[in-house]
Write a structure and sequence with these properties.
3-stranded antiparallel sheet, Origin recognition complex subunit 4 C-terminal domain-containing protein, alpha/beta, 54% helix, P-loop_NTPase, 3 domains, ORC4, single chain, DNA replication origin binding, Arc Repressor Mutant, subunit A
Length: 391
């Protein structure tokens, strides 16, 4: 790992780094590491559409407004020489009386329709437009891309609309673990283009502040905004040190986080868990708290085994709430797998003996403990939780 020197950079080095920071700031809105897979799949669908000449459709779910604009631009860049690009925006559509008439013109000409906020069209009257567009893919060389925020969009569509919609689905997950989140931060800094700047920032210890931001709001656009504001703060300095860079990020996050809502999908899932799943998660939390003091804020996350969680769970059930007792470790192991599927645990590679398979926690253990306090739990389980929180 790079040394974390606190000494200022030389004058020449400072000038070079500040210049690169200004250039990186100008490019930061063009960097979308969290969309790489979605972009790859969408452009693959577009390439197939253009090469075959047949109509096609797909839906892209879980997008922020910035994400939608980026994917629409990338799609337009790929298709603009071979198809007409048509942007369908809900707000504009119903103030333009000639909008639907424009769809009917030159129907046999290749077209790519990118529908922003397609979930706004799910009322019966407005689904008629979706049906016309999707039915057009059966008749004409049209590609229709439905960009939606929610993942329950498909279930609200009328049968006739669903029958015309391709099963091709691209999901941009809003849930990411802290390691990926940290990776996105450094990707925003465009390492390959600005080596001097990146080398300087790599010597800084940002993990603690970024972990805090992740707990408060894991949205990528918030991370981008805070990174841009940090660079703006640093560009104004005449002398650079790692300590000043760390302080700049801390200042930006402290000023910015109160202005954005709590948005960590991890915590939103908790209220939908069964009591047994909550108990398993709480037992793991207790074990992670015991381990955390052995790990600094930049080291690998601590890990525990399936069996350790089971033994802790048995102890909790026997002492605090016998109704949760189980007669087999397989029951607890299955709950761990379900929690892993939901993204609440990061499960390691399979082992010959599942008892020794490892898990880690993708969020800060103390932030998770605070979230437990918001849940309605039996008094005996709450007492166990109070003991966990006090550790």
């Amino acid at each position: 790992m790079p040394s974390r020197t606190r000494t200022p950079t030389s004058v020449d080095e400072t000038v070079a780094i500040l210049q690169q920071m200004a250039e990186a700031l100008g490019l930061i809105d063009t960097v979308h590491p969290h969309l790489e897979e979605a972009e790859k799949k969408l452009l693959s669908i577009a390439d197939k559409f253009m090469s075959s000449g047949n109509g096609a459709s797909c839906r892209v779910e879980g997008l922020s407004n910035t994400d939608k604009v980026h994917l629409q631009r990338r799609l337009a860049e790929r298709c603009r020489h071979r198809a007409e690009i048509v942007t369908v925006n809900y707000d504009e559509l119903f103030t333009d009386n000639n909008c639907e008439e424009r769809f009917e013109k030159d129907r046999n000409h290749p077209r790519v329709f990118f529908v922003f906020n397609a979930e706004h069209f799910i009322s019966s009257l407005r689904q008629t437009l979706l049906y016309k567009l999707l039915n057009g893919t059966m008749l004409y060389p049209w590609l229709v891309v439905l960009a939606v925020n929610s993942q329950d969009f498909y279930g609200h569509l009328e049968k006739r609309v669903r029958s015309r919609l391709s099963p091709d689905r691209i999901c941009v997950s809003s849930t990411t673990d802290i390691s990926t989140y940290l990776s996105h931060f450094y990707q925003l800094l465009s390492k390959d283009k600005f080596p001097e700047m990146f080398g300087f920032l790599a010597r800084c210890s940002f993990a603690k502040q970024l972990n805090y931001l992740y707990q408060m709001n894991s949205d990528f656009d918030v991370l981008r905004r805070c990174t841009a504001l940090m660079l703006t703060e640093l560009i104004c300095l005449e002398e650079l040190t790692t300590e000043r860079a760390e302080s700049a990020l801390k200042f930006v996050i402290e000023m910015h986080v109160p202005a954005v809502p709590l948005k960590n999908p991890f915590f939103n899932i908790l209220k939908d868990l069964s009591l047994r799943q909550i108990a398993v998660l709480m037992c793991a939390t207790r074990l992670f708290k015991q381990l955390e003091s052995r790990f600094d804020d930049k080291a690998d996350a601590p890990q525990i085994s399936f069996r350790q969680v089971f033994l802790e769970y048995k102890q909790m059930a026997n002492k605090s709430y016998k109704l949760l007792d189980v007669n087999s470790d397989k029951i607890v192991f299955e709950e761990i797998r379900r929690l892993g599927f939901l993204g609440l645990f990061t499960i390691g590679n399979k082992t010959t003996n599942v008892s020794f398979q490892k898990i880690s926690l993708p969020v800060d253990v103390y932030s998770l403990s605070e979230q437990f306090k918001t849940l309605s739990l039996p008094a005996a389980v709450q007492d166990f939780f109070a003991h966990v929180s006090a550790m």
